[in-house]
Amino acid sequence: MQEETSKVRLTTMSTKAGCAAKFGPGNLAKVMAHMNMQERKDDPNLIVGFGTCDDAGVYKIAPDYALIQTVDFFTPIVDDPYTFGAIAATNALSDVYAMGGKPLTALNVCCFSTGLDPEVYAEILQGGLDKVTEAGAVVVGGHTVTDNEIKFGVSVTGYVHPDKVLTNGGARPGDVIILTKPLGTGVISTAFKNEIIGNDGMKEAVVSMSTLNKAASEAAQDIGVNACTDVTGFGLSGHSYEVASASNVTIRIDLSKVPVMEGVLDLIAKDCIPGGGYANRSHYEKWVEFEGEVSEVKKTLVFDPQTSGGLLLFVPKERADDLLKKLEEKKTLRSQIIGEVLPKAEGEKYITYYEGE
Ligand code: CO
Ligand code: CO
Ligand code: CO
């Protein structure tokens, strides 16, 4: 992170922050329902298309080589331009890691307002460039649009061996579920925007959001996992639901094991909840079951939209310890076993949460 060189508060210039600015799962479903668009099922090289709500598209261009393509951009989640750029790039690169791939090239997506010091934009781009470089990839260009609400992100192209693609459809009963970053960025950034917490209260979230999921993805590929996704705008419940429905399994999560950033539960108790959290809850709640006594605070947490969240890994039980050890070796943030995969239960529920010991 760099010293704050500008006086502007980037987060005051938009109404929503980071991945909480997503159009919303309910809104998107309504748009898709009006469309006649179908995946090119006749194209044998399309490995992952938009039909399965996965993290990125995957397209085979040679027997041993598939391209991964994804784009993510959003409004400022922090005030410091350099840090905003770094977080936006980390978040976008994550979808390549979530497919088990390595990033190759990146294109900047810039919606910049006129009237701000050019230095601010230079810092945003520098933050993004440095992260892309840290990921071992190259920025090859980009596009700008004038926009009153600043937005920045990158479109990333990566690669993976076609046999090593990690989709959200591979989870199997008996798998253990590991989460590699703590939850809470939606709540924390809302608290920051509303000036309930200051820069100190943002620190843990900033470190987490600007940590690449590279090490976690490499560990997953080394050990071998059945499924993988990253936890971003749709929250733990939304992304778990995508895996559970694509894999036709039930996911059971012990809330006492789910890592949470410091102060987040208190902030939720003070009603510091992003709009995206409410949108996620109203869309995904019907597939979620809370077993036994679960506090309202924890019920809110599982729908909190994450920006640049961790990987959610589904690993066969006998390899779970090896994976945890590998994740520790590679110094991922806070990897923890949070649950297990069960055969699909009858009815419409896909996720069960309970408060363990
Ligand atoms: Co993703
Ligand atoms: Co995605
Ligand atoms: Co994405």
Give a quick summary of the entry.
The chain has 357 residues and is an alpha+beta fold. Helix content is 33%, strand content 24%.
Tell me about this structure.
This protein is α+β, with helices and mostly antiparallel strands. The protein folds into 2 domains: 10-164, 60s Ribosomal Protein L30, Chain: A; 175-354, Phosphoribosyl-aminoimidazole Synthetase, Chain A, domain 2 (Alpha-Beta Complex). The protein contains 11 helices and 13 strands. The strands form 2 sheets. The protein has a 7-stranded mixed β-sheet with strand order 8-11-7-12-9-13-10, sandwiched between helices. Strands 1-2-3-6-4-5 form a 6-stranded mixed β-sheet, with helices on one face. α2 (81-98) runs parallel beside α3 (118-134), α4 (185-193) runs antiparallel to α5 (199-209) and α7 packs parallel to α9 (275-284). The two termini are 38 Å apart. Bound molecules: cobalt (II) ion (3 copies).
What are the main properties of this structure?
alpha+beta, 60s Ribosomal Protein L30, Chain: A, 7-stranded mixed beta sheet, 6-stranded mixed beta sheet, 11 helices, 13 strands, 33% helix, globular, disordered N terminus, binds cobalt (II) ion
What is the mean predicted local confidence, pLDDT? 93
- SSE pattern, N- to C-terminal: HEEEHEHEEEHHHEHEHHEHEHEE
The spatial strand order of the largest sheet comes to 8-11-7-12-9-13-10
Number of structural domains: 2
Unreliable stretches, pLDDT < 50, 5 or more residues?
1-5
Query: What's the β-strand tally?
Result: 13
Distance between the termini: 38 Å
Strand content: 15-25%
| Ligands present | cobalt (II) ion
Structural class: alpha+beta
CATH superfamily heading of the largest domain:
PurM-like C-terminal domain
Helix content: 25-40%
Question: What is the CATH architecture annotation of the largest domain?
Answer: Alpha-Beta Complex
Main beta sheet strand tally, sense and closure: 7 strands, mixed
Question: How many H/I helices?
Answer: 11
Radius of gyration: 19 Å
Give the CATH class of the largest domain: Alpha Beta
Outline: globular
Topology-level CATH name of the largest domain: Phosphoribosyl-aminoimidazole Synthetase, Chain A, domain 2
